[in-house]
Amino acid sequence: MSLAQPLLRESLSQQIRDRLLSRIMSGALKPGDRLIELKIAAEMATSQAPVREALRELEAMGVIETLRNKGARVRVITNEELREIYDVRAELEAYATELVTAGARHVTAGLMTCIRGMKKAANKSDSIAFADHNMAFHRIIVEGAGNKVLLDLWEMLNVKMRTMVNVSRSSRNLLELTESHQMIVDAILSGNAKHAHAVARTHVLDNKPGRDEQADSSVAAASPDA
Predict the structure, then answer these.
(1) Strands 71-74 and 64-67
(2) Using 50, 70 and 90 to split pLDDT, how confident is the model at 211?
(3) Which residues are within 8 A (CB) of 58 and not within 5 positions of it... i.e. 6 or more apart?
(4) What is the Cα–Cα distance from 72 to 95, expressed in whole angstroms?
């Protein structure tokens, strides 16, 4: 993907951020690679100001880090870091889904719109768009819970970025991931808050980084040839 594609005038920093994020997720930019403002600005035919803002956003997302006297560089995001975040996310979203089921089931229309968006992105193998719709899906539930502290804690997890990283490392099909969200909608519509809590928690943990490897190991251990 070329960084030199023409940019629209609106939201330059967001476009630069997404292009850099795409390159990081694809492996074109690797952990440890430096991100030089002047060079990026020249490649994108823009000033350094939106590049600087894009880099700040990427740092806030945990994708890059800025070292004193060395500038910005792509940081290593370990599976262990992701697993710990998914553990916390599972509990937050399970609680939010329970609250929504008990008092805000009208959010399901918005959730179905997000599922359609995820399916469209999955068919195009567009991991960035998929992560956008995925984040929107879960945000609708967390916002619908009506608990600001819960929402603030959830936002600290940077769900979009972590979803992108996890998808890029997982062997699971995006269409399968899309379909797994329907179970949450069905659980909310059931009106059974405890059941919805369990379904939402399982959904997050089923997509926890390293789960594929653990499943492979279990199969190997159970095989008579192992």
Answers:
(1) antiparallel
(2) low
(3) 17, 20, 21, 64, 72
(4) 37
Examine residue 225 and state whether it is found in any structural domain, yes or no.
no
Give the pLDDT confidence of 64-81 residue by residue, as tens digits: 998 888 889 998 878 888
Sorted by sequence, the CB contacts under 8 Å of residue 102 that are 6+ apart come out as: 193
Q: Assess whether 152 and 49 both reside in one domain.
A: no
Q: Quick check: is 216 in a domain?
A: no
In 64-181, which ranges are continuous DSSP H helix?
Answer: 79-103, 108-123, 127-144, 148-155, 159-169, 174-180
Answering whether pTM is above 0.70, one says yes
- pLDDT for res 136: 93
Residue 221, domain member (yes or no) = no
